[in-house]
């Protein structure tokens, strides 16, 4: 028997961050989170289960992968095989359309695409909710990439009730993200390690959990009322709170470098000139500027004058998981 399926999933950037797990094996987060799926960056993945294979193989951008990335991927295939009750090996071929130097997390789009293609090739017909639960087991943020536009990952407290759902798939707000790459190197501390260290050692962790619940309610209200300023204000503040957990951990650490802080300062200064721009940062030094389309050209001009060497990309809201066959 041979069975193939291909799927595409886009990456997402959290406006209300996920930073810590209450169950590490099942990837159940301590807080609910909310993100915007982006059109610009995505992963295409083809999975082929074949009786003739004697092992799983994983090709990323046409290169055979070995080591931790391959192991994580094969562990995920095992989950799919368990659900489908098969024991056939598979070949995975993924192409990442996240520019290699973009410094953006690709695990969200990668595991969302793999959940889609892998489950279908294994003969499963999963609902989007079940796909989100499955993608979550690969990387938490992947749960949100099953959906387009604004997507909320409801934390839940077990495997069955921790999944993402769409808040608004066809985004009505004028919102774009300018990704500013200050450093394209791999992150030194993975998000998986960083978040648990913050959870275990920051004295402010419980405050973060409490604040995140309030931020989420306010963020959903901002989306419903099309209030860009409220959305941006909340997103920037939530990101800074997440990063303050890392600074206050023991030992403290940060994903920021000098350029991150300089760009953050530039974004805050733009607002003083009546240009509505807000910043969000994840497990790396790069900055994503949340802006309205009418301002993106001006913002990029100002940014390029101050930092001629940074790489900049504009992303718009994107759609959820799609099958390519
Ligand atoms: C800062 O989803 O990469 O981007 O579940 O351990 O794979 P694991 O972590 P991951 O963490 C993402 C952290 C973040 C915030 C977010 O996307 O919500």
From TrEMBL:
Task: Write out the entry's keywords from A to Z.
Answer: ATP-binding, Lipid biosynthesis, Lipid metabolism, Lyase, Nucleotide-binding
Asked if the record carries the keyword Disulfide bond, the reply is no
Instruction: Give the source's domain of life in one word.
Output: Bacteria
Alphabetical list of InterPro entries matching this protein: GHMP_kinase_C_sf, Mev_decarb, Mev_diP_decarb, MVD-like_N, Mvd1_C, Ribosomal_Su5_D2-typ_SF, Ribsml_uS5_D2-typ_fold_subgr
Name the EC number(s): 4.1.1.33
Where along the sequence do coiled-coil regions lie?
none
Task: Show the GO MF annotations.
Answer: diphosphomevalonate decarboxylase activity
Q: Which residues form the Mvd1 C-terminal domain?
A: 178-310
Q: Which SUPFAM superfamilies match?
A: GHMP Kinase, C-terminal domain, Ribosomal protein S5 domain 2-like
**UniProt keyword annotation of Nucleotide-binding present:** yes
Q: Which family does it belong to?
A: Belongs to the diphosphomevalonate decarboxylase family.
Question: Could you tell me what this protein is called?
Answer: diphosphomevalonate decarboxylase
Q: Which organism is it from?
A: Periweissella beninensis
The gene coding this protein: mvaD
